[in-house]
Amino acid sequence: MAGHPQVHRICPLLMAALGLGSPLRALTAESYHASDQTMAGTTVVLTGHDLSIEQLVAIARHGAKVQLSAEARQAAADSFGLILEAQAEGVPVYLFNRSPGSGRENVSLKGDPGSPEFQAELERRWAAPGFSEGGFGGEVPDEEVGRAMLAVDLNNMRYLAASAGYVQGIIDLLNAGVTPAVYWRGAIGEADFVPTGTVLRGRGAAYYKGVRLPAAEALRKAGLKPVHFEGADANLLTTSALTAGYAALLVHDVRRLIEWHDLIWALDLLAMNGSIAPLSMPVQATRPFVWANYAAARTLDMLKGSYVFNGEYRIIQDPESLRATVWRDAGLWQAWARLRDSTLIQMNSTDHNPTVRPDVSPGDSWELATPQLMKYFVRGGRYSNGKHGFIFSNSDWDPYPLLDDVEALPIALQNLMVVVVQRLHRFEDTFFTVTDPRAVLKAHGGTDGISGAGGGGGGAIADALWQELKPLANPVPPDGVTADKGVGDIDAVPMLKLVRLHQAIEVSRDILGQDLLNAAAWLDIRKLEDPTRDFGAAPTAAWRALRTIIPFRRDPSAAPPAESSGTRISAFIAATPASSFYAPTAAMPGGDEVRPPLAETPQAKVSR
Predict the structure, then answer these.
(1) Of 122, 412, 533, 577, which has the fewest Cβ atoms less than 10 A away?
(2) Once rounded to an integer, what is the mean pLDDT over residues 351-364?
(3) Across-strand partners of 67?
(4) Structural domains of the chain, with CATH
């Protein structure tokens, strides 16, 4: 499809999630959206505890290379050694020397890690197809999602018992541009069962330079060789790296969407010749919701120096859809911040089962010294280089509370977008605008060739888009299931929830595009009405940039555009960050450089 790749892409995955199409079919290479390489010369060093949203986007979407810090490599090596030492000491470890699921009490590995018996069993496991190669239907059609999965998987390696070869293998996949083909259907979402290990072994399918190939061939073309697994490498599929990586991409996109909304909101106030009183200090100080205060400060700053602060006549009170925007906008900023924080924690921690924690001692927390938990204490020896620690079965793979925040965001988004649609219609009424746009245009050359809404408001397209947006706020209720004798008795279906958010972002961007078209037309009218009016630096810059792609008056001798103004404006918003027109001076609540807390061991004394 022509235009920006993020615009109007209702891919088969989204259509199926929304009930708009048939089940997914295998994608062709032509329908796969490869990541760009605009940051291929950049290297992001992963530590396992401070990967940011921006770094994840650079890797996944823009081809940045990766490296793992020495600290993170050592942490992975320590975990790898501890799990082998557990085998040597007879400590039960779920999914390693005990079978998965309902076979959790069955011993599945015997012998010392250096024994032929032990090695033979591991080789047998690695030769088996494994359920990591499952899935069916179509694949996630965006390489950025697969690369985001790999980046989170690699960042989590400090907590996983991965061999050095496995760790380096993920680095090589990312840096060589080999991306696993990711199936999204057929999993209940209690762990994504990521296909990382499958492709590392040269199995399954992968994309190389945007072309789908058997994994072994993709590795060969990239100059890579399959990784020979060691220890517990075959068990490293039970993470939610796909969920976390996809969520991080959407966190980035939601922020850009809100920033564009705020700039368009400023243009709407200028277009309406509206009241800025609701944004003023006394109003905001008496209702101190921090994100509302932040949104008000941002918008006031954008409008600073514009004509809405002069003494000319304007109505005392705007329609509620314009006047109450600050509170709806605050709700969306707050929902975004919650999702951002949950995503940062998710992608900088681990959800693998089991939890492997070298160097944790029985004295670090009172419960660890109890007889029950001491069963899982590894005292340390040859295979762990003397390091001790604990290995626990857990439920970390349940992707909550992250998914609660994923589902909450479309509700906040919808509560804001309804005012956007409504304020579009208010421009149709001279009761609010005071000015009759047709009279102004008649006095200045008429309406021939006028683009956008012709200065008269109108929101028919936005109304249709609003109908698309409304069902996307509905949650996907989790169900109880009976998988594996009831051991796996809940589901999460994170991909269904994430694709709803993805689509809500895209539809909302299109609605904002209609709002921007209307606001820009009204700025032209306000300028015709009084050429001395100043719109402020940021709104003026955005207005002028838009007019370079969609002129206010079309040249009658020029060929008609190949795409509608709606498609072009959506592409403009998707490709151009609002921050290119406005650098905020207001401090974001909690700061703009949020980092997740590093998992530390509380050095509490054992209660005696």
Answers:
(1) 577
(2) 93
(3) 45
(4) 12-248+356-392 (1.10.275.10), 261-343+402-556+563-580 (1.20.200.10)
